[in-house]
Amino acid sequence: MDTWMRFMSSDGSIVFGRVEGAYLHEYEGLAQPVPTGAVLSLRALTPLAPCAPGKIVALWNNYHGLAAKLGKPVPTHPLFLLKPAASVIGTGEPIRRPGSYAGKIVYEGELGIVIGQRCRDVDVQQAEQAIFGYTLVNDVTAADLLTENPHFPQWCRAKGFDTFCCIGPAIVSGFEWRDAHLVTMLDGVERQNYPLADMVFSPAEQVSLISQDLTLEPGDVIACGTSVGVGSIREGATVSITIDGIGTLTNTLIAGTPDGAPAAAQERSGATANAV
C-alpha cells in the first residue's frame, strides 16, 4: 500500500506526493502520478485535504445494516447527490456552522473512493483500474433543512455548505477495503463501528454504475454512504473517523463567522486553480 497526501509549502504552493516516514516524495499530481524527484520534509509542510475534487458524489442507503434499520428497500442503482468542491476541508480543520442555520448538524463517517482516471460508461473491471485509492469522508449534514420544504427535499443544500465535506487524512492505494471496519468517535465515545463489506454496491460497482450517469474525473471523490450510528454534533464537539490502514480524520464543529471564512476554507482545501 502507498500513502498519498497534499500539503501547502511555505511559499504557498501546493504539493502532492507519496509519504514515506517523515518525507514527501513529490509527484506531478494525482491525474499524472509521475515523480518530480523532489523530496520534502513534512515538518516544513502544512497538510491539506489529500485531493481537490471537482465534485463529491455522496451515496445514500448503501449499507444493508442501515437499510434494515430504516426499513428501506435495498436500491438497484446507487442513490446519490453531489456536494460542491467548496465544501471540502482536510483533517484538523474546523467544521463551521452556517450563520443562517441554528438546527441540528449531523456527522456521517464514510469510506471515500478517489478517482484516478476519467470514467464514462466503464464496466466493473475498468472501474477497478480507475480507482486511485481510498480515503475517509465525514459527510456533514444540516439535518433540519432536508425536510424544511415539504415539496422539495433539500439534499444538496443540507449537505453542501462550506466545510461540510471533511476528507482525509490521506489517500491509500492498494487498500483492501473488504476486511476493514469504520469507527466513528464523538468526543472519545464510539458512535459507529461497521464493516465496509456490508456495502450494497462495492467500490468498483459504484464507479461503474455512476459513470453511466455522469463523467467522473481524476480527483473526484465518491463517498460510499454510511451505516448505523449517525448522530448530531454540538459546537465544540470533535468527530474522529478511523479506518485502520488509512488513518484518522478529525474535525471539530465551531460557530460560523460572517467574515469570509468560506473563502479561507476554500483556500485551505486547495479547491483553486493551482490544485493538484
TrEMBL record:
<feature type="domain" description="Rv2993c-like N-terminal">
    <location>
        <begin position="4"/>
        <end position="50"/>
    </location>
</feature>
<dbReference type="Pfam" id="PF01557">
    <property type="entry name" value="FAA_hydrolase"/>
</dbReference>
<dbReference type="GO" id="GO:0046872">
    <property type="term" value="F:metal ion binding"/>
</dbReference>
<dbReference type="InterPro" id="IPR036663">
    <property type="entry name" value="Fumarylacetoacetase_C_sf"/>
</dbReference>
<dbReference type="InterPro" id="IPR018833">
    <property type="entry name" value="Rv2993c-like_N"/>
</dbReference>
<keyword id="KW-0479">Metal-binding</keyword>
<dbReference type="Pfam" id="PF10370">
    <property type="entry name" value="Rv2993c-like_N"/>
</dbReference>
<dbReference type="GO" id="GO:0018773">
    <property type="term" value="F:acetylpyruvate hydrolase activity"/>
</dbReference>
<feature type="domain" description="Fumarylacetoacetase-like C-terminal">
    <location>
        <begin position="55"/>
        <end position="253"/>
    </location>
</feature>
<dbReference type="InterPro" id="IPR011234">
    <property type="entry name" value="Fumarylacetoacetase-like_C"/>
</dbReference>
<protein>
    <submittedName>
        <fullName>2-keto-4-pentenoate hydratase/2-oxohepta-3-ene-1,7-dioic acid hydratase (Catechol pathway)</fullName>
    </submittedName>
</protein>
